[in-house]
Design a protein that fits this description.
By secondary structure, this protein is mainly α. The chain is built from ten helices and no strands. Bound molecules: prephenic acid.
Amino acid sequence: MDAAIDLTDRSKALDLSNIRAQLIRLEDTITFHLIERAQFPHNKTIYVPGGVPIPGSDLSLMDYLLQEQERIQSRVRRYESPDEHPFFPQALETPILEPLQYPQILWANDVNENETIKKRYIEEIIPAVCPTNRVDRGASQENYGSSASADVNLLQALSRRIHFGKFVAESKFQQETDKFVQLIKAGDRQGIDEAITNMKVEQLVLKRIETKAQTYGSDPVLEEYRNKIDSEAVVNMYKNIIIPITKVVEVEYLMQRLKGTQWE
Ligand SMILES: O=C(O)C(=O)C[C@]1(C(=O)O)C=C[C@@H](O)C=C1
């Protein structure tokens, strides 16, 4: 089954089972990128502005690489796609490719949780996945570039997964419009949060991600390559960071959903 979501077809893009299939596929991407990152030490220096001297920039090495990656990817339309959100909007350039015509799927909104995602990534995810109490004491200068490259891949995948919450929210709004209009009009963020929450689905996500971290994180043949990634850290990351921020995206998207509509 090809689970890649078709953003050129509105009804498919808003079908909740298609959206969830996309979230499931992104779990694989995130798990594999985590395994890539976890083979290197924490390398704290790459997250500190000026920690690694960069000619003409006082950004951290990771921010520098992320910004430059976004700049070049903007040229091939990455940020025209409604499921992509930049960390450095000011770095984006006019695409060299012709614009694509996407049907309107999402309502106009300016929700972008990337600052929060990056902060929690640096402060919580990386220390849990790449602990400093290793034999290398958490640093190896020769892996700075590789570590930052893995970070960029991971942050982009996490951002995509989390901002898919907008499609989930739009789909739920379509399903239960009257209920959401009332909650949104009342400014009831907590009520919206409760209405978009599905504990059963969350439990399934956590169970599945644990199995994936354990399975993908161990070599099928070589005993010494077991537990390439701490599955408990991965489950906690989903439970405490990814799912909660996805819900913030859903709630904040819905809070803007009535602008310019008949319900405003
Ligand atoms: O699948 C959904 O319905 C979502 O809203 C996504 C998600 C998640 O982040 O995985 C978030 C909130 C729900 O409680 C369940 C799952």
